[in-house]
Amino acid sequence: MPELPEVETVRRMLATTVVGRTIRAVRLSGAALRERIPGSLARRLRGLRFTGTDRHGKYLLLHLDAGVTLLSHLGMSGRWLFFPVAPQAGLPHVHARVQLADGAELWFQDPRRFGLLRLVATTRLGDDRALAALGPDPVTAPLSAADFRARAHGTRVSVKSFLLDQRRLAGLGNIYASEILFRAGVDPRRRAGVLRPAEWEAIAAAVPVVLAEALERMGTTFSTYRTIWNEPGQFAERLAVYDRAGEPCRRCGTPIRRIVQGQRSTFFCPGCQARGSRGRPARGAPMGT
DNA sequence: ATCCTATCCTGTAGGC
DNA sequence: TGCCTACAGGATAGGA
User: Fold this and answer.
1) Which residues make beta-bridge pairs with A214?
2) Are A236 and A222 in contact (CB under 8 A)?
3) CB-based contact A109:A76 (threshold 8 Å)
4) Is residue A188 flagged as an active site residue?
5) Nearest Cα to A239, choosing from A274, A213, A206, A277?
């Protein structure tokens, strides 16, 4: 469930905690994540200092001196946990323990092991196959309605599936795709290739608003996601549609529906996201349907 | 090229 | 109470 707001929350926190600190040693579990972590990763990180952070979509980049970047992806259940003092007790599913020179520790925990840890030369980030495949990041490179429309031209997939495709737009996952379409008043079942300009306008406007609100509350926690201080995000209570099947829409009272698209749940309000609507009015405006 | 499905994995919720 | 199954969804390989 970590999507852009969750990863950005983690990035900001790591920027104020680990940047400037030096790695004394790295211990690996030996378990394979999305791909196997080579033992050389621990050896290459030893003695390096964190110099900065970046994020592209759901990928988190921790830059170190010596021209090395530690690329990570949280997958479904991954967490970076920071401990100012090394804990006495261990935790299950910790795949990397980064021991810092001052005694603090940074752990990568991932029960389901869909996550990723990889070292990349800082100057060759553009060549990395995972990063190279990503579309623009909607926070660092916001897309206009015209951009969306151009990217969707000719595609037959639903607008929900379109928003989830990291090659087209990097950072949205299942939660925020549904939330953004609700905010925009667009039916998730509509084909992305035939949306009208007004609908793309509504989507382009909704993306930064929904992401900013989620980021302000440190993201959405259902069960697994935590910040580096092991705190849950607070956006779950603000969700308009996600995981609210059968509950009344907060705006019009219509029961929220759950459907399956591309083997994933989609949640939407049949009242506010009517098929063929032009995008609903801005929040607070008269309903008009 | 584009789209769709199955796969990886574990914790948890629900049924019986 | 306890066992079993289904489900959650990140990315991606491979097939249609």
Assistant:
1) none
2) yes
3) no
4) no
5) A213
Please compute the mean of the pLDDT values over residues A107-113 and round it to a whole number.
95
Cβ of residue A264 lies below 7 Å from strand C = yes
Which residue's CA is nearest to the C1' of nucleotide B12? A223
Instruction: Give pLDDT, residue A280.
Output: 52
Contact A218, A70 (CB under 8 A): no
In A84-229, where does DSSP find H-type helix? 129-132, 145-152, 159-164, 174-184, 197-216
Q: Output the CA torsion sign for A52, A56, A61, A66.
A: negative
Look at strands A59-64 and A257-261 and give their pairing.
Answer: unpaired
Q: Which nucleotides of C are covered by protein (CB under 7 A)?
A: 8-12
pLDDT in tens, A190-246: 999 999 999 999 999 999 999 999 999 998 887 789 999 999 999 999 999 999 999
Say how far apart CA A98 and CA A199 lie, in whole Å. 46
Residue spans of alpha helices (H) in chain A: 4-17, 40-45, 129-132, 145-152, 159-164, 174-184, 197-216
Phi/psi for A204 (5° steps) reads: -60, -35
**Position A168 pLDDT exceeds 70:** yes
Angstrom distance (rounded) from CA A188 to CA A269: 10
Distance between CA A176 and CA A45 in Å, rounded?
A: 34
Residue tagged active-site, from A6, A8, A55, A58? A58
Q: How far is the CA of A78 from the C1' of C4 (A)?
A: 27
Other CB atoms within 10 A of residue A217 CB: 16
- DSSP count for chain A of H helices, then E strands: 7, 10
Give me the sign of the Cα torsion angle A140, A143, A144, A147.
Answer: positive
Q: How far apart are the C-alpha atoms of A242 and A5, rounded to whole Å?
A: 15
